[in-house]
Amino acid sequence: MRIEVSRSGGFAGIGRRAALDTAGRADGARLEELAREVAAQAPRSGAHGVPDGFHYEITIDGRTVECADPHLTPAQRELVQAVLGEGA
Amino acid sequence: MGVFCTIVPPHVLDRLARAQDPDLSTAARRTLEHDARERTRRRLTTVLGPTVSAQGTASDTPQRTVDDAKHHDTLPGRKVRGEGDKPSKDVTVNRAYDGLGATFETYLKAYGRHSIDGAGLPLIASVHYLQGYNNAFWNGEQMVFGDGDGRIFLDFTIPVDVIGHELTHGVTQYTANLDYFGQSGALNESVSDVFGSLIKQYTLGQSTEQADWLIGAGLLAPGVNGHALRSMKEPGTAYDDPQLGKDPQPGTMAGYVSTSQDNGGVHVNSGIPNHAFYLLATALGGNAWEQAGQIWYDTLTGGSLATGAQFADFAAATAAAAKARYGEGEQLAAVLHAWGQVGVQVPAGGSAAPTGVPRQQPGQPQQA
User: Fold this and answer.
1) Nearest CA in chain B to A60
2) Residue A76 in contact with residue A66, Cβ under 8 Å?
3) Contacts of B47 by beta carbon, 8 Å cutoff, 6+ apart
4) ipTM of the modeled complex
5) CA B116 to CA B174: how far, in whole Å?
6) Does the annotation mark B141 as catalytic?
7) Within 10 Å of residue B338's Cβ, how many Cβ atoms?
8) Where do the structural domains in chain A lie, given as residue ranges?
9) Which InterPro entries does the entry mention (chain A) (predicted)?
């Protein structure tokens, strides 16, 4: 499973993008579980953030889910942090 | 709305929300917010205007609370310092407390404004949000600070202009309520940079010549090639680093960036009105928070700006504000010249923006 996270916005306005493939990773099963959970979540009110908040696009096998701080679900938060790493 | 909502751009959703929900009551706001766990707050804020706080004579002293999120994302976290409490052992807590105070003081002394809403709104800041979080933001009700990851960014409470920037998002929310997208969003960002810098200048007692005109000086980690995140004096020169890339800000309309990222480049194109303010302030000289800052403050709070104001609308409103406060003197000429230098043409007469009843008088909450 390929998971890509793109982040924009933030006080600095500096974008970040990172991707990983779960195949062969020690944490692959956990990441796939998170990705399935994220893909299954249906945000009712879109991906509206707040001034200077980060905006995220999470793409799982070609399909994209959007979310924005400070309203990430625990699964979205963990997945974003795992893929993006840095300060997310 | 389904999971895969990327085909609907955020600004379109905003417009839909505005069209559908013109008269949501406070009760409906509460219910919706409760149901959606904060998810709808920003959109509701945009649609409805801010929550009106309690009436009464606002105090000349702030009501500050600093909370510790303890590296989680639950807000506000645990209270660690209230107004008048002795300093904490945690320097981050104390910096946030002092920054809230500096912001309150500047708005009060320079512009006669009582807190964010003009009516003494308590100031709340949560520190230590998440782990190594590279950001700070205003969530519509309070400030939130990350610690930075120590590799690219340090603690976001370090620069007082960052604290002033975030709280000014609150002031904008309670006044012009500029849409956070495209040019109006870049104006929203720029206003936060302008007053963030003015709060730093006022606090340090710096004249226009002494000010560094930087946003986020001291925030970049050692080893990062840059001196800040934005430069109002020379947009595009704040950093140039392998990890961060190069500061993308233009200083004039010739460099205006069209993008779908970052709400339409709100942190990029803010360089243009930022530079216009710098040019005005340096042309007038002295302390920037006095005449130049007053003109910008009058523009933000005067009630003539539409929420979707574009650069030219804002420029016209600053010209009208300069004329209203200082007459047809050097201030008005300097305003027109500054906008001309960044390539924003002010419509003839300098008062294209509609005039009307001021959105907010000092000490009175805005009519929603």
Assistant:
1) B4
2) no
3) B17, B18, B21, B22, B24
4) 0.90
5) 7
6) no
7) 25
8) 2-84
9) Emfourin
